[in-house]
Amino acid sequence: METKGNDEVEKLKTKLLSVWHNVKYSWALKSKTLFSRNSPVLLLGKYYHFKSEDDDSVTETCYEASIEDLVVGNVEDFRRDFASRVWLTYREDFPPLPGSTLTSDCGWGCMLRAGQMMLAQALILHFLGRDWTWSGALTLQPLDTETWTTTAAKRLVASLEASLQGSQEPSDPGSPPLSQAQTLGAAEEADAHIKEMYHRTVVSWFGDSPSCQLGLHRLVHVGLTLGKQAGDWYGPAVVAHILKKAVEEAADPGLAGITAYVSQDCTVYSADVIDSHTAPKAGWASVGGLHARPPSNNHPSASSLPDGRAVVILVPVRLGGEKTNPEYFNLAKNILSLEYCIGIIGGKPTQACYFVGFQDDSLIYMDPHYCQSFVDVSSSDFPLQSYHCPSPKKMHFSKMDPSCTIGFYSRSVQDYERISQELSKVLQPSAKEKYPAFTFAQGHSRDCMVSAGLTPEKREWPFIPDSRRAAANTAGDFVLL
């Protein structure tokens, strides 16, 4: 009886805490973010400029306005692109998390949500490509169109295949053969449906249910095996390892063609990444009941399958001591300007966010500190609106916490070779920096560990040697050398 009473008290405390956090975080999106029309904006490798064609030279006074009020340049393209990124925030009233009675992650799960957003961007690149945008990005209203069911998608694909094969058999007796315009229209419609199916499936993997492959419940479960509890605060390095393990353990066939790698001691070991790429092929990926190969050339229905698996490369770094070193700002800019960059998870001290771009000396980010209600993603037509953010936020680089994890998406071994070469040039330190934020090394990490006299048994997760553990910064799981 006493145990039952204690459980009731804990549930009541959880509920009260959830209510308080809901009030605390429900106003987070109401403030407007100002953008300059005289400076370019970079968003995950895409360049935008809000200066209108009628403007002559850049004026002395910088004009600022909220993104909703700006009507110059390609603002609409930027808004569509930003709102198409998957937005994952605090939720409440979902099933209890593993090892706890918590039914909300308000107040503590922001870094896990930021990590989910970065991983979601990698999956969008993997299945849809960087040029994809959501059709509802500019409206962000519940979709009234036909439900994207497996049956409907299969019917459209079958219709498209029949048309492309030159079939003259009408779908209905007495119907005339499809014209070229009708065939093209059917192809575009089928392509749009397939893209939306990929989009919806990716979002569903991050749902807040125990069965969701990359949802909060799965991440918390992985965290339990690594010494983290639901309700704890997770640092960016810890989240990198949790994401890696969650991707590796995902049972959905749709995730079989992608894996993850986490750098060790700010070093990316090329042989380890290549090994991840060249693992045995997973074969056909199953998405929403359809069997489709991962896309190439930014097209989800491409027929060629890259050798091996794609790799999400996660690099935990520390960009300074107690505060971020200003000398690293240009590095962050250069990295966020790359199309294969999937962003940076970090934020202010104890407040995590997902950095996706910049303008001038301000980082552009997506904020998970907004409490929303649980959505049942098992429904074929679950609403997508709450998984897309209409309002970007900005933060001056000087306010950024030095502990962060940088992410990249590599589709193939050839892709990785190009990425490592380009990043090696970007990472060349200036005279003031002295040391690069991270480096690339040939060979396997295990070989370097043995040469340094460190065996895997002597290295505890998250890979900080015992002799240095006492000096580790607890906020970011890093040692400053």
How would you describe what is shown here?
With about 475 residues, the protein is an alpha+beta fold. The protein contains twelve helices and 19 strands. The protein has helices at about 1-25, 75-85, 110-125, 150-165, 180-205, 215-225, 235-250, 270-275, 330-335, 415-425, 445-450, 465-470; strands spanning about 35, 40-45, 45-50, 65, 90, 260, 265-270, 285, 290, 310-320, 340-350, 350-360, 360-365, 370-375, 395, 405-410, 440, 460, 465. The strands form six sheets. Strands 2, 3, 6, 10, 11, 12, 13, 15 and 16 form a nine-stranded mixed sheet that branches. About 40% of the residues are buried. Mean pLDDT is about 80; it is low at about 55-60, about 140-155, about 165-175, about 280-305 and about 455-480.
